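hey can u check if this looks right to u? its 264 residues, i copy pasted from the old doc so theres a chance i mangled smth
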Amino acid sequence: MSSPVLVCALRGTDAFRALGAALKGWTQGRDSLSTGDSLPQAVMALTPEVTFRQAILFFTEADFVTGKARFYCVYYPQEHTKLTQICFSSLEGESWRCRAESLFSYLQAGAQVLCTVLLIKPGVWSRRLPRILRNLHLEKFSVVGMKHLKLEAATASALLPCEVQQDPAALEAHCTYLTSGTALVLCLQRPNAVKKLMDLLGPEDPQLAQALDPCLWRAQYGTSTVQNGFYGSRSYPVAARDVKLFFPEGLCCAQCQTGQEEEV
C-alpha cells in the first residue's frame, strides 16, 4: 500500500450497527462532494469474530486502554492520507488516568449478562401471564425478581418518556391507566437483555407494531399508545434505575449485578 492508513479499535453500545450507520452517512456525504482529490476510504469489521482476527494483526493487549478520555484526529485536506495531529484530552480535568485492558478477552467473553425490567400493565397480566412467561422462557430470559403491585401516580409518571411528561393530557391519560389496577413487575436477566426485550415489545403504538410485525408483543396485546400492554426499560441506565426502583431489597440471583455496577 503506497499511502499510510489509520487503524482504530472502537468500543461502544451496539457498536457494529452504530459505526456502520455513521460510515454510510459519511460515504454519502463524501460522494456528493466535487473535488479533484480522492477522499479517504474507510472499512470496518462486520462481526466480533472478524474484529478479533483483525485486531490481533495490529495491536497487542497493552495497546488498549479504558477511562474517561477521548481523542480526536485532525488532518489537512491536502494531506488527508496522513495523520497530522492526535490530541488526547481528559474529561476529568488535567489528569488522565487509564489502565490496560484485555480487549481480546472481552471479545471472546461474548455478550454480557444484564438485567432489565418488564412491567405488564393492568388488565393484561391477569389474562395472559402463562403465555407471557412461556414466551420469556423461549427467549431465554430468566425471571430474577417479581412483584405484584398497584403503582403510585409519581412512580407511573417516572416511567413515562419525556415527551409524554411534557404533554399534560397524555400524562394524565397514561397515569390514570397505569394506576387503574394492579401491575406485575418482572426483573429479567439474559445476555443483552435490554435490547432483546425492546425488540420483542416493538413500538409504543400497537398499530405501528402491527404494521412492522404482528408477532411483536405490543401488536398482540396492545390496543392504543396508552393501553399498549407493557413497559420495558429503554436503555441500560434506565434498567439500572428501574431495578433499584422496584427491587430495592435485591434480587434472587447472585449473578445479577446491575445495581452494584451502576453505583461503582
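The first strand starts at residue 65 and ends at 66.
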